[in-house]
């Protein structure tokens, strides 16, 4: 699972090559040993737990980069490594 972005101690990753188990386009965020899965389409929390402030930062980042994330999702579903995306600044 490659890291596609990093900001404020948060690592954002996306799986690739395993589209049968991952139907909803989403990213994984890790922060201080905790992790979440967040839907790309609407930023909703799918699973996991990280502090609220970091969750909101990831949701804002998703909102800003939604088109790039969907392009990365398509690459991931095709078994190709996704591109890196600019961090939240």
UniProtKB/TrEMBL annotation:
<dbReference type="Pfam" id="PF13711">
    <property type="entry name" value="DUF4160"/>
</dbReference>
<protein>
    <recommendedName>
        <fullName>DUF4160 domain-containing protein</fullName>
    </recommendedName>
</protein>
<dbReference type="InterPro" id="IPR025427">
    <property type="entry name" value="DUF4160"/>
</dbReference>
